[in-house]
Design a protein that fits this description.
heterodimer, A: 343 residues, mainly alpha, ABC transporter involved in vitamin B12 uptake, BtuC, two-stranded antiparallel ribbon, globular, B: 264 residues, alpha/beta, Rossmann fold, six-stranded mixed sheet, four-stranded antiparallel sheet, 10 helices, 23% strand
Chain lengths: 343, 264
Amino acid sequence: MFTSIFGAFESGIIYAIMALGVYLSFRVLDFPDLTVDGSFVTGAAVAAIMIVNGANPFAATMTALVAGFLAGCLTGVIHTVGKVNALLSGILMMIALYSINLRIMGKSNVPLLNTDTTMTAVRDFFDKTGIDSVFNGILSAVGLGDSLPRTWGILLFMIIVTFAIKFITDAFLKTEIGLAIRATGDNKRMIRSFSSNTNLMIILGLGLSNAMVAFSGALIAQQGGFADVGMGIGMIIIGLASVIIGEALFGTKSIARTTLAVIGGSIIYRIVVTLALRVEFLKPGDMKLITAVIVILALTAPKMIDSYKEKKRKVKRQIENIQMMSVTPDRKGEAGAALKSDS
Amino acid sequence: MLHLNQIHRVFNEGTPDEKIALDNINLTLKKGDFVTVIGSNGAGKSTLMNIISGVMLPDHGQVSLDGKDVTYMSEYNRSKMIGRVFQDPMAGTAPSMTIEENLAIAYSRNKRRTLGLGVTKKRRELFKEVLESLHLGLENRLNAKVGMLSGGERQALSLLMATFTEPSILLLDEHTAALDPSRAELITNLTNEIVDRYHLTTLMVTHNMQQALDLGNRLIMMDKGQIILEVNEEQKAKLTIDDLLNEFQRIRGTKMANDRALLS
């Protein structure tokens, strides 16, 4: 149990980078970008094939990031210059990337076992420091010692990386260019009248979004030990689920708060899926269905709760009004005044 | 300052719905001119605005601004020199961003946008100062989302954002038409104040004849894509609504077909 939750936490924090990318396109730019399904694999494929061919794993991960950026920019170009509908340009890019990813990898699956990856480097580093034994010692002391994680290093490393990306994103969205990108998602007519090239902003925004997605894909491939051409299927929905769950649970008061919420949403999504798969009736193949149900619930439940609350409030107010109207005749004036001040 | 030369624009050319929106328009605004534009529906007022701002291109003719030919310059490039306020109070601001962020966007209009912070301490002081001139108390709500403001407040903010960087020309497209009378009056007064303070060259389209007479130093009347009447500063001071209606009837031989203009 602890090991699977731990695993969910670890992958949740890596997928959170992808979710931040989806937040950037879906929420900030108001652009439902399906490129994600393809660019996630592109990141994984580029990193895997470079690592297998002996490249430095850090350099490979960075190259994956650049590849994702280019893929996103292309979607932006198709949409803005080609004037193709947003959804369609994302789908076109996703389909195109499927073939490109196969070309990059040369086959449909590239295993990364027994090679040096970012993750093995981090693990080795932590082995040397001895932090793992300290953490595991604490866990054993509190009685959770029966199933210990192999290393805490990857989790700590990924928390640092993900939060670094979160803070960079927060800061970027407050710069002059960041403000222009946000306004592009908010009111295109307005930002054009303030001398900003909305096409360029969309292209840049989608590039950055898919750079994060591909970066996340590269890290997932190294954590899981393989890159597979099908690993991106439904990724946009997982990203959306993380964004929506996070926003619903942790709020959207400011940008910093929202990006934090997205990271939290990604982790919670992983934990929910892990728990769901422990139900005996469900099989691993049901995961996409579970995801879809979670997203539908996350999209509809808050609205239903709101309308229920609103209804309850209205009924309550009506009862109050009736009570006030039915006071004795000599106090009618007061009741009327109270009603007026109430409304 | 602004010079329109033989601007011609046809909609749906070659179809039965063909309509000449602008028929060889010539118009020159000198620095500091405040021109009000009136005319019936479909007179071409909005098309004129769209062609000056670059939303549409003319079929032929030239637009020049500050002595530069901008006829084919893209809308966003041209916006460096043009301030615009739209009829819809929702159109001129970004609702999910705060007041100071909106002002920061407006502040970068005539500069190159960089990776520098949008709202710096120094700029915040400037924003506070310019917001105070609206007398709406917005300077105390810098971090409020603009979507929470009322229509009048949003339009006042739009007006401020369009003007405080002192554009070469200010285009007002019926910017008080969607507001209730008291709010419209507030915006009208603010417009007068701001244009005066920054000595802005202004072109204002309005349906409200009284407003057209009260504001500005020149007036033009449009009909069917043509400028049918130009009134200079001296004549404008003496002009009344009745004069305008009579003048229209004299020129066109029909009554002005615009209930909105008559009633307001």
